[in-house]
């Protein structure tokens, strides 16, 4: 779960926390979470209490990337809502303290499921975990952003139109070899985009089972993690991203449910999950869901193309894995086209 050593100046951290975090007393030790979060995250242990510290990476970063201040803001705003989040303790934007801004939050004790297959749980508990996952997502999309002070958390306008333009630009900038299916997918998404239905909600941006903490001996979600991509947008982007993930191969790489006998395992089908979500939000059946699913495949294909380009340019931290992931771009493009036909 943790790496052996944490690249964190504990002397500086302790010196800052003593006057700023009520109840903090050293000595303090740190362990870095291994899981692939772009913002390095550490478990801080003290004799009286444990905390989690999440920081920007060191070095030169893209202007809007790794915005830990936004993560802190959205979780603080949601703390008294129906969306379970860790308690936020403090935000430090003084980069002189440890070399980058960071925040400290509650350490939520529970269990994390890496894959949606939920191996290790019995059949009925698997169903309860996934139902809870859908209920939390519905609750997230029903948050009154004005009431919690997040009305300005994202730009106005047609979310999918904006996102399609953004990721098409990103894809073109990272394009290496021609991929006809990707070119066709972009054209099809542009021509089949549904009319904006006016839904404007908080969206997580990376809503997956492995970004959630559940009770150690139960099935209730205790906290949703990793809010780096959160914004104001369209709720079906989150919902479609869940379904897209489930259509990936099972295992540590795909982390999907392809080929799984879901009924036998107590897991809902894609359509059952969508129905549960709509029931929780009091919505009718979603029209044009194939578009939203197709867009999710397109967005992931564009992201992976960027990963491949960085590897070929010699800028990837793990070039071998980056090249391997880049080979999936044509597959995601093909899945995106198939989703439009459903």
Automatic annotation (TrEMBL):
Q: Where is the Aminoglycoside phosphotransferase domain?
A: 30-254
The domain of life is Bacteria
SUPFAM superfamilies in alphabetical order: Protein kinase-like (PK-like) (SSF56112)
CDD domains in alphabetical order? ACAD10_11_N-like
Q: Which Pfam families match?
A: APH
Protein name stated in the entry: Phosphotransferase family protein
Organism placement in taxonomy? Bacteria, Pseudomonadati, Pseudomonadota, Alphaproteobacteria, Rhodobacterales
């Amino acid at each position: 779960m943790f790496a052996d050593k944490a690249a964190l100046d504990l002397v500086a951290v302790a010196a800052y926390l003593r006057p700023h975090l009520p109840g903090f007393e050293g000595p303090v030790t740190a362990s870095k979470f291994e899981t692939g979060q772009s913002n390095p995250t550490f478990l801080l242990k003290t004799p009286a209490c444990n905390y989690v510290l999440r920081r920007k990476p060191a070095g030169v970063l893209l202007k809007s990337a790794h915005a830990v201040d936004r993560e802190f803001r959205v979780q603080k705003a949601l703390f008294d809502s129906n969306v379970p989040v860790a308690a936020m303790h403090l935000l430090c934007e003084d980069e002189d303290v440890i070399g980058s801004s960071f925040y400290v939050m509650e350490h939520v004790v529970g269990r994390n499921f890496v894959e949606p297959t939920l191996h290790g749980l019995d059949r009925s508990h698997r169903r309860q975990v996934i139902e809870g996952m859908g209920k939390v997502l519905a609750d997230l999309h029903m948050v009154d952003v004005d009431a919690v002070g997040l009305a300005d958390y994202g730009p106005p306008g047609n979310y999918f139109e904006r996102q399609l333009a953004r990721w098409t630009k990103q894809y073109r900038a990272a394009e290496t070899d021609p991929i006809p299916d990707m070119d066709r997918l972009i054209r099809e998404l542009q021509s089949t985009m549904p009319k904006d239905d006016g839904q404007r909600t908080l969206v997580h941006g990376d809503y997956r089972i492995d970004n959630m903490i559940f009770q150690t001996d139960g099935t209730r979600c205790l906290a949703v993690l990793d809010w780096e991509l959160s914004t104001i947008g369209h709720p079906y982007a989150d919902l479609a991203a869940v379904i897209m993930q489930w259509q990936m191969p099972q295992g540590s790489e795909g982390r999907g449910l392809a080929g799984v006998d879901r009924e036998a395992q107590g897991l809902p089908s894609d359509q059952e999950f969508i129905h549960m979500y709509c029931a929780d939000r009091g919505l009718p059946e979603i029209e044009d869901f194939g578009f939203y699913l197709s867009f999710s495949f397109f967005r992931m294909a564009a992201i992976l193309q960027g990963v491949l380009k960085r590897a070929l340019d010699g800028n990837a931290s793990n070039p071998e894995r980056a090249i391997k992931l880049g080979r999936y771009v044509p597959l995601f493009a093909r899945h995106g086209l198939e989703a439009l036909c459903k």
